């Protein structure tokens, strides 16, 4: 058995997870008395099974790990993974029991705060969905979670804000804000949701690996794109630019290669924001593969350089447009006009 486990660990370190899984599984079945009391075996075997969406076995391994090593530094995280898996599998009541346990037994720790955030978010979401059954829901949650089950009221926002402040430069704080923004969406408070989502995107530099700023940015694009398209149809440059600015950093990545991003750049240019317009035209050129759209963006970028009295840069851009599009018909006379300026 030691040789089998040693080989499994070696394969795991080499990221040969499928091969390692076979050996971990053999050890777990053939030598249960030894394998099931080895925290490292349980953790690594669980990680592989969870990645393969084998959630039932994954949860079994996590609980086995917690039971043999409740004082391990990763013990509360193991219970959080169980809760997350249960939520994903639509077993909300069971998930909330685990979250409640972690929040109560690890109060003040990162795991405890994260469990509190996720418990509050889960209860708040289902409180909103309860609708006319809201009173019955409050009574039920009070029985299950005690007197602190006030997640359908203003206390939810207050607590999420407290956690966001406490973990200002940590993914936990961003996650708390994300659940708060979703809470506002469920209440049809879209303006408040947009403000919170943008706040999350501004935190991206503090924790580049956190998943919440990209998720918030995607929600912003989902909410704002229909309004931006309406502003384009209404030829309302001011509204279009204002909506685009609500994306926060990097909002343009959701519209790469699209006519909408070109329209946003044009609106910036017409309103006098020539530097930002130039940046957006460059983004369109780099990300787009449609010749006609590329030509239009290059021509507009050349005009921006002319407005900035940079004739050399303008001619350079237009020369690039000529070379890039020489095999196809030009959609505009602007390259000739500008080069003759």
Jot down its keywords.
mainly alpha; 19 helices; disordered C terminus; single chain; 0% strand; 341 residues; elongated; Serine Threonine Protein Phosphatase 5, Tetratricopeptide repeat
Describe this structure in words.
The structure is a single chain. With 341 residues, the protein is mainly alpha-helical. It has a domain at 256-341: Alpha Horseshoe (Serine Threonine Protein Phosphatase 5, Tetratricopeptide repeat), CATH 1.25.40.10. Helix content is 74%, strand content 0%. The chain is built from 19 helices and no strands. The protein has helices at residues 2-13, 17-30, 32-35, 39-51, 55-68, 75-88, 92-105, 110-130, 134-145, 154-166, 171-186, 190-201, 212-233, 237-245, 259-270, 274-287, 291-307, 311-324, 334-339. α7 runs antiparallel to α8 (110-130), α10 (154-166) runs antiparallel to α11 and α13 (212-233) packs antiparallel against α14 (237-245). The radius of gyration is 27 Å and the shape is elongated. The model is unreliable at 333-341 (pLDDT under 50).
The average pLDDT value, as a whole number, equals 86
Beta strands, count: 0
Counted by DSSP, the helix tally is: 19
How would you spell out the order of helices and strands? HHHHHHHHHHHHHHHHHHH
Shape: elongated
State which percent range the strand residues make up: under 5%
Under CATH, the topology of the domain at 256-341 can be stated as: Serine Threonine Protein Phosphatase 5, Tetratricopeptide repeat
- CATH architectural category of the domain at 256-341: Alpha Horseshoe
Q: What's the alpha carbon Rg, rounded to whole Å?
A: 27 Å
Query: Structural class given helices, strands, pairing?
Result: mainly alpha
State the end-to-end distance. 81 Å
